[in-house]
Amino acid sequence: MRVPLSWLNDLLVEPVSARVAAEALGDAGLTVSRVEGVGAASPHVVVGEVVSVDADGAVVRVPTCEPVRVPASVGPLRPGARVAVAMAGALLPDDAPSGTVRVPRSGAGAVLRVGEVCRARDLGGDGGAAVPLPPDASLGAPVAPLLPAAAGDTVLTLRVPGHLPHARSLAGLAAEVAARAGTSVVPDEDPPASGLRAAPLAVATADVEAAAVLVPEPAPGAVDPQVRRRLQLAGLRPDGPLVAAVRAVAYRTGVRITLHPSSPGPLRLAVHADGPPGSGPHHVDGVRPPVPGEPPTWVVVATAVRGARPGPAAALREVCHAVGADPVHAAAGGGPDGPRRVLVLDLAATARRTGLTLGADEVARLVARVDARAEPDDDGRVRVTVPPSRPDLRDEVALADELVRLAGVGDVVASWPAPLHRRPEAPRRTLEQRVRRALLGEGRQELVTSLVTRADAPTGEDDVPLVPGDGPRAAVRSDLAVDLARRAAARPDGGRVRVFEVGGVVSRDGRERRVAAIASRGPAAGGDPAELLRDVARAVRAVVDAAGAGRDVALLPADGAAPGGVVVVVRGRPVGRAGLQHVVRRAHRTTVAAAELDLDELVAASAAPRGRAPAVPVRRSGPHPALTRDLTLDVPGGGPSALELLDVLRAAAPLVTDVRVVDSHVRDDHGVTRCLTFRLTLASPWRDVTRAEGNAVVAHAVTVCEGRGARVRR
């Protein structure tokens, strides 16, 4: 739908700019895809100077590297005259279906055509002559300040949702803009009646009103030229004066108007209107045939849903007034009253669902804008009677969505509804598949080994267990991490080795467990131990995240373990271990970082309650994308724990829907300092979160964390 801004402003008491109109319509639930200036309002229509004139046309000088070749059909030009030049990319009015044409860059030779001189009809006038400009006009300056306002216009291209039929007319759009831009709608001035007594008109469809008139053929040029130009910009071809008047009134009011040639016999017309679903065509009976000897007449029929303003009769009077013709016959009628839909709105449930806290009076004020009627009850509910013009309001959820649209999407406080139930965690088999995908996504190679090992498998005398208490190896594998570390150290290639395995082990009490083991070896059979531990720690977090507990993982030092040895704790429950494994093979010592996670324990820990309200997951596939921000903090010894900082960041702002620890390591430059990187996800179910809001949330989070003793890494 194309909307000329000047036509929209004619319906408003205080005109608005294109930016204000676009923001108001977007807040009303419509999509504004383009805002373009046409004619003098286009920034590509500038002042040029005629340099020379010959038989082939003229050459015009503008602030470009090439002169502009002008066709000779523009009209008489004289050297030195200032004229309006539409450069490449300018939009000018045209008879094309879209109503406009964009000036191309074309031509060849010594003089390249990069534009054209504007004719009077391109700038709101008539004729093909060039429009003269003041001789002191600055070359290359926009021509809009030098010409009347009618020389240009701004066109908004909209996409109107199907459930908002009132927004397909200028009157409906003006009402939406007025409600959000601090202005009001100009009251309709009903044209004077013709004095004819309207005959009864039979309408079979419920809740539909209709009117019809017999109008003689109007004289050519009866419609105002400005209306024809606006119809052209709206993409509606003004074919003939009566057709132009019908299209202009229908576009402005939203009333469905059809035009039919008169016939000798009685007329039975089938016309379509925006009625209730499934109503189909509306049959209209009662329009009399023309009387012999009358001049040629047209039958103009208008239909609308009952209660629409203006109604069909007023719309037809406006058509007759636009063409300056008096009808020779008029008829009006309506169908029977249909059942009225009554919806019961729970205000408390609506507040939880939408984030809007509305009282009964506010609900009544909002729904009155769509011709609905609200009656409050004593139990915090409101009974809303839906008008026939809104068949889309079928239930309480649709009515709540309409209240959000009427109140303004941009004014809704960002919030998430509480979950109705906690989704059960996936079983162990599904978790194993997720773990494999997560580790393969990190670029690791999967190994598959046998559960049964040799009882006399050689061991290195310098081996350091990950956590004390590991017993001697048995014929049945009891420790997958140690076995995987030896295999990583024994790889013949001298490059970096990053492997994992998901398999079974048998504990000393005879119980079989499913575990995930991870191992990392640096290049040249070595590598920085701290870097190897960080690499394994990232893999551990990926595994825990696959189980849905990535927020509550902690790597705690293991009592009595070797340097770097840690226990993986999820929601207060130990689920695995990680650390350095020193493998001695052929008198050569290789350092490997390894980890082992018990998948059964991980499933149990993930299903355990967290001790706080469950977080609502971010809706990744919704219409409003989430915004992420990373925050790196240095936490000195004795400072707050990672779980404490997670709680602080989650409460930083209502827009924060998710906080995760994506990196953690220890620095030992000036005392033991933990470096934690948190990823904050900001989202709203009703709108896009701006970058400025994201920066403000991060700044507030930094202030709160610094008050707890953490420092932001600069």
Automatic annotation (TrEMBL):
Ranges of residues in domain FDX-ACB: 622-713
SUPFAM superfamilies: Putative DNA-binding domain
Domain of life: Bacteria
B5 domain sequence ranges: 338-414
PROSITE patterns found in the cross-reference section: B5, FDX_ACB
Designated name of the protein: Phenylalanyl-tRNA synthetase beta subunit
Lineage: Bacteria, Bacillati, Actinomycetota, Actinomycetes, Micrococcales
